[in-house]
Amino acid sequence: MASFVPRASKRLRLAGPSSPSSWVCNDCRRTFASSIRPRQQQQQQQHHHQQPTPPHPSQDDKTTHFGFETVSESLKAGRVRDVFSSVAANYDTMNDLMSLGIHRLWKDYFVRSLNPGIPPSTTSSPRGQKILDIAGGTGDIALRHLDHSTTINNDHKTSVIISDINPEMLAEGMKRFASSPYKPTNRVSFLEANAEDLPTIESNSIDLYTVAFGIRNFTHKQKALAEAFRVLKPGGVFACLEFTPNLSNPLLNAIYKRWSFGAIPLIGQVVAADRDSYQYLVESIEKFPSQAEFAGMIRDAGFLIPGHNSPGEGGLEGGWEDLTMGVAAIHKGIKPA
């Protein structure tokens, strides 16, 4: 037995594979076939086949951006819908992180500047305003509209349609209004729709169209602006509150970028276990047009831009209001009477 063990151990002293599927004995130089590598390759191939390959835009597809990623236009709405399905339950927390909580003050100021509602003293037959709040699923802007019209303008007729492409976001809004004094009234309704196509909203039927922190996610922003123009009454107001891609102060802009790209996705991972969605939201801000460019888009849709100057061909200065050193901005447009 003792003499057998050394001989057996000698036979087991194998050199590395001379080919992907063989091993060589150091003593007799015989080659032994091995099934280890083919089995590993088979497992890798099976694993590879199990991983879905994301579709790439074909040459015929029109493309757009999804954050910093280039995707087919036909895919973006679904990708955005998935992001907001993921963050719906933490939407207010998300905006708290992205604005350090200041978004609540911006929204208060945004609604006050629009002064929704019609005081009874200004008309003999008060009818209230009809407001459309786009990408307003969680209802925080709509609730501010109704509170302002009721408490400031003593208007109990103004109503709001809350529209969003995402049903999970609308569900959050329904929860918010379930505990509000407006639940038993007919002053709020919910609409699941794409802002680029609103067939259920009649032309020239809306007094005030608002969108807060939503339009940067639209695939065709110009198309959404055209639809806003269509549904508004002559003299109606388009109003948008949105993050801006750059601050005017270079030093502050650098600090803001470092915070946005370094901290926000990490906090999203910790708070919501969803780094990717928060990474997209930061990138979507970076891809949004500058204040001057977006004001020009509003003008191109047919709106009059209050307070703007046109210094040259195609140029536009002013016509928006920067908030907190330009971290966000308010844009307004008026449909000509």
From TrEMBL:
Biological source species: Salinomyces thailandicus
EC number: 2.1.1.201
Main localisation: mitochondrion
Bilayer topology: Peripheral membrane protein
Gene Ontology cellular-component annotations: extrinsic component of mitochondrial inner membrane
Ribosomal protein in keyword set: no
Enzyme class (EC, first level): transferase
Highest classification ranks of the organism: Eukaryota, Fungi, Dikarya, Ascomycota, Pezizomycotina
Reactions catalysed according to its record: a 2-methoxy-6-(all-trans-polyprenyl)benzene-1,4-diol + S-adenosyl-L-methionine = a 5-methoxy-2-methyl-3-(all-trans-polyprenyl)benzene-1,4-diol + S-adenosyl-L-homocysteine + H(+)
Family membership noted in the UniProt record: Belongs to the class I-like SAM-binding methyltransferase superfamily. MenG/UbiE family.
Positions bound to S-adenosyl-L-methionine: T138, D164, N194, A195
Keywords, sorted A to Z: Membrane, Methyltransferase, Mitochondrion, Mitochondrion inner membrane, S-adenosyl-L-methionine, Transferase, Ubiquinone biosynthesis
MF (Gene Ontology): 2-methoxy-6-polyprenyl-1,4-benzoquinol methyltransferase activity
Classification via SUPFAM superfamilies: S-adenosyl-L-methionine-dependent methyltransferases
Protein task: Methyltransferase required for the conversion of 2-polyprenyl-6-methoxy-1,4-benzoquinol (DDMQH2) to 2-polyprenyl-3-methyl-6-methoxy-1,4-benzoquinol (DMQH2).
InterPro entries to which the protein is assigned, alphabetical: SAM-dependent_MTases_sf, UbiE/COQ5_MeTrFase, UbiE/COQ5_MeTrFase_CS
Compartment(s) where it occurs, according to its Swiss-Prot or TrEMBL record: Mitochondrion inner membrane
Record-given protein name: 2-methoxy-6-polyprenyl-1,4-benzoquinol methylase, mitochondrial
Subunit organization: Component of a multi-subunit COQ enzyme complex, composed of at least COQ3, COQ4, COQ5, COQ6, COQ7 and COQ9.
